[in-house]
């Protein structure tokens, strides 16, 4: 558990009921604290949304959605939600507190789990997930960080912040939500999630528990996403030879790239996990710790049992082994099926040899007429030379196509597509055309200025851009209208996009919106200026050192200063208020005996206004014999000084 005594939330009483004790964890949307429910005298976990997100309706709705989703689930493998509310500037969610660690902590410490530990954890996760799927909820962010392992042995799923109804089956919007390492191919490519997307994440977690690492790695998230979309998850036994074949098959079944080839929901996979547990335990002699290595049949695309309907049956691991057929019987049945297939195969081989002989010999079947698969991993995303070598090794020939294609994920100059498509089965010596990536497609930036946020985001998605969370600053424009559009350069720096600029397909853009007109505080008394700014959530900080100002009275605001180079202000910003201390005092200099125009120049240079009797207008050489106010008197800058003059008759 992490504590932070400098955290302003520590010690705060939320909603007059929840006393915050210490910080447990911090995430992208919220921070989780340990708190005491003073009303019921129990410890709880309270999740508090980050302050900078509290004003964002989209994030706030997602936060509330977590409470609603989790509250609909009453299951021993799902973290209970007790309460949700708003206390002043704090949006919070109160949950069951579990003393323990996360699955991520366990993997960090031990790296690889045993098959038995993996199946026990997976059974608990799938039990909770099955309850969610039965209630029509997809978790959409299943990962080791969201699997809690309590000190008393309980295992629970948490964090339904990205949950959505199973029936929704709609795109997530332009920005992918969830952790990239566990996103299913359909979420990466189409932004679509259903119950089978959770199954994919569970399969990736299972691989990680057995193999000690995630199946796909990359320096950039986009590289990992590309592998999820285009590559098949390997078997964990390739990294850990102690993994039984049965668990290899479970991983491959759960992580199939095509959703239809996975278990249709958590209940279906749970039933197979329980059966696999029973098979492994039955196969081991009493007291044995070795794992069996005999390979079983590949998991079917859907393990739907007739008559089960949509009811969720939670089968615990303590169920008697007799509930599953003995492994010896299952092996015998598999052997009989294999023998039948073996016999049929011989007949087909004989038939093919006969046909091949009639066509000119068996060489046709074993040579150009044989079928091979066009490689995917060693071709897509590789340099043309590397791709050509991989294709040649597969028994095919290649050529670089004149046609180049745009790709938001494949680097410039790498192979983006093949014709025929990668993964398809073709005749040996087929010519495979390599289409080279031109990088992301350049798209002209449309006119976003003046649009509302919703209209601008819709236009961005229709154009091919990825809108991110908008920013707001005060401008002299209606609230919520687009002022500026920002993009991301190749080096990751922020750039300003103008209408007609060339930007790239699937690149993120950020809208700067008007937060309305900032109140005018110049020449207001400082307390009134602070109040006016507070009304729009801007903090006015009067600067202690005041300035002289001829035009602004003492105690009024001269100007407002911000920390931003352009002087703009955003809601929740703090600004400095420069306050006037009135006109600067000036001492009237000794101009007695000076000629009229000389005296005027001296006085005006000090910021004073000079007058004299109009009878002396024709006589610039008139001599000053006195001033009002008198010489040596201190007056405010800008004051009027009247000259007394006498006519000097020249010799």
TrEMBL record:
<dbReference type="InterPro" id="IPR008271">
    <property type="entry name" value="Ser/Thr_kinase_AS"/>
</dbReference>
<keyword id="KW-0067">ATP-binding</keyword>
<dbReference type="GO" id="GO:0004674">
    <property type="term" value="F:protein serine/threonine kinase activity"/>
</dbReference>
<keyword id="KW-0472">Membrane</keyword>
<dbReference type="InterPro" id="IPR005543">
    <property type="entry name" value="PASTA_dom"/>
</dbReference>
<keyword id="KW-0812">Transmembrane</keyword>
<feature type="transmembrane region" description="Helical">
    <location>
        <begin position="345"/>
        <end position="366"/>
    </location>
</feature>
<feature type="domain" description="PASTA">
    <location>
        <begin position="369"/>
        <end position="438"/>
    </location>
</feature>
<dbReference type="InterPro" id="IPR000719">
    <property type="entry name" value="Prot_kinase_dom"/>
</dbReference>
<dbReference type="GO" id="GO:0045717">
    <property type="term" value="P:negative regulation of fatty acid biosynthetic process"/>
</dbReference>
<keyword id="KW-0808">Transferase</keyword>
<dbReference type="Pfam" id="PF03793">
    <property type="entry name" value="PASTA"/>
</dbReference>
<feature type="domain" description="PASTA">
    <location>
        <begin position="582"/>
        <end position="647"/>
    </location>
</feature>
<dbReference type="InterPro" id="IPR011009">
    <property type="entry name" value="Kinase-like_dom_sf"/>
</dbReference>
<feature type="domain" description="PASTA">
    <location>
        <begin position="439"/>
        <end position="501"/>
    </location>
</feature>
<keyword id="KW-0418">Kinase</keyword>
<dbReference type="Pfam" id="PF00069">
    <property type="entry name" value="Pkinase"/>
</dbReference>
<keyword id="KW-1133">Transmembrane helix</keyword>
<keyword id="KW-0723">Serine/threonine-protein kinase</keyword>
<dbReference type="GO" id="GO:0005524">
    <property type="term" value="F:ATP binding"/>
</dbReference>
<feature type="domain" description="Protein kinase">
    <location>
        <begin position="18"/>
        <end position="274"/>
    </location>
</feature>
<protein>
    <recommendedName>
        <fullName>non-specific serine/threonine protein kinase</fullName>
        <ecNumber>2.7.11.1</ecNumber>
    </recommendedName>
</protein>
<keyword id="KW-0547">Nucleotide-binding</keyword>
